[in-house]
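In response to reviewer comment 3 from the previous cycle, which asked for concrete evidence that the modeling workflow produces usable outputs, we include below a single protein chain processed end to end. The sequence was submitted unchanged, and the resulting structure tokens are shown without manual editing.
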Amino acid sequence: MKVVLIKSPKFLAPILRLMFKIDKVKSET
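The workflow returned the following structure tokens.
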């Protein structure tokens, strides 16, 4: 999986954003 992330950072960006948003929501709850 790490190889795929390194090869496609553009595809990884939105995923990181989603994970960050989920983290924020969890910490706020």
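The chain has a mean pLDDT of 77. We consider this sufficient to address the reviewer's concern, and the full set will be provided in the supplementary archive.
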